[in-house]
Specification:
Layout lengths: L1 H21 L6 H8 L4 E5 L5 E8 L5 E5 L10 H7 L4 E5 L17 H14 L5 E6 L1 H12 L4 E7 L18 H6 L2 H7 L5 H11 L8 H12 L3 H10 L8 H5 L5 E6 L8 H9 L3 E6 L6 H4 L1 H17 L1
Parallel strand pairs: 3-4, 3-5, 5-6, 6-7, 7-8
Antiparallel strand pairs: 1-2, 2-4
Helix pairs in contact: 3-14, 4-5, 7-10, 8-9
Length: 321
């Protein structure tokens, strides 16, 4: 018993020292917002769902597509695609609750259900009756849930290295390549996660997410880091990771999605292994694939021209139907 008490005390002391050494204060919201808004940035006040940052870009009279970012990312991840798409399509990108310039929300609800509600509210506010929805990683899981909950509104689905479904466990299938994701699963480390400097974890996570490490510039790291330090965002992240995952789907869910689907995947993905792709491909009835050699978890930033070209071709086939 004395040994156990000693070990617990030692652990608490080490956590306290780590907190002191790694402490980093929040950056005020207005400072971060001024740094990362654009002329196309808009904010929708959705009450308990938060003050949601989104962008509505491209040709307003053209077919709309809503794109959703992954965990710990922001709508900025789709900027390279928007530049490729905006001449032909209307592109709506959204900072989901707990992320980007939306950040912490009054309800403290960061579930998949809450994020689907945000997407629906934005779509309603923009008067979108029908649209393509897509997402990367966590965003793909939310796009899947939206397609299941609102099938009559969806004309197409785009899944980019998507989370949300697995029948088997594969080697390295639990975000093992990303230290931050592993640590955020630990209640001990979440306890200090709201106050420690995220820079190292951001840098390591991005380098794990990209096969071509040269893509990970200091400017990219600082963008992710600043958004993580935005006032309230670390608290929201800790709450999100302490919740119960509600974005896992059954095989029959995927088999019941009857809209054209584009499945995009980097073959060197260290976050969501390429082996997952076969699961989606085998189950979804109207699926087209675009797979990328020597590419990691975020194709729209790693190979933006090539992946955007595949997306444009897919969107054009939908318009022809």
């Amino acid at each position: 018993m004395k040994i156990l008490k000693f070990l617990i005390l030692t652990l608490l002391v080490l956590l306290g020292l780590a907190t002191l050494i790694l402490y980093e204060g929040d950056i005020p919201k207005d400072v971060v917002d001024a740094r990362y808004t654009s002329l196309d940035s808009q904010f929708a006040d959705l009450g308990d769902l938060g003050r949601v940052h989104y962008r509505d870009e491209g040709r307003r009279q053209s077919s709309p597509v809503i794109l959703l970012h992954g965990s710990n990312a922001s709508l900025h991840t789709f900027e390279p695609w928007v530049r490729q798409l905006e001449d032909k399509f209307r592109v709506i990108t959204i900072d989901l609750p707990g992320h980007g310039l939306t950040g912490e929300i009054p309800s403290d609800n960061y579930s998949c259900e809450s994020m689907v509600s945000v997407v629906n509210e934005i779509a309603n506010s923009l008067g979108l009756e029908h649209f393509v929805i897509g997402g990367n990683s966590m965003g793909g899981s939310i796009a899947l849930r939206y397609a299941l909950d609102h099938p009559k509104r969806i004309t197409g689905l785009v899944l980019i290295d998507s989370s949300g479904f697995m029948r088997k466990r594969f080697e390295n299938d639990d975000n093992q390549g990303v230290l931050a994701f592993r640590l955020l699963k630990s209640p001990w480390l979440r306890a200090i996660g709201e106050v420690i400097d995220p820079y190292y974890f951001v840098s390591q996570g991005l380098k794990a997410a990209f096969y071509n490490k040269a893509v990970v510039t200091e400017a990219m790291i600082m963008r992710y880091n600043d958004l993580a330090l935005r006032e309230g965002s670390r608290s929201a992240t800790m709450k999100r990771f302490s919740g119960t995952a509600d974005d896992k789907y059954r095989a029959e869910d995927l088999a019941g999605i009857n809209v054209p689907t584009l499945l995009m995947w980097g073959k060197e993905d260290a976050v969501a292994p390429f082996a997952f792709a076969s699961e989606y491909e085998a189950l979804m009835p109207d699926i087209t694939t675009a797979y990328y050699d020597r590419v990691g978890h975020i194709p729209m930033e790693e190979v933006p021209e090539r992946s955007a070209s595949d997306l444009i071709a897919f969107l054009e086939t939908i318009n022809e139907r």
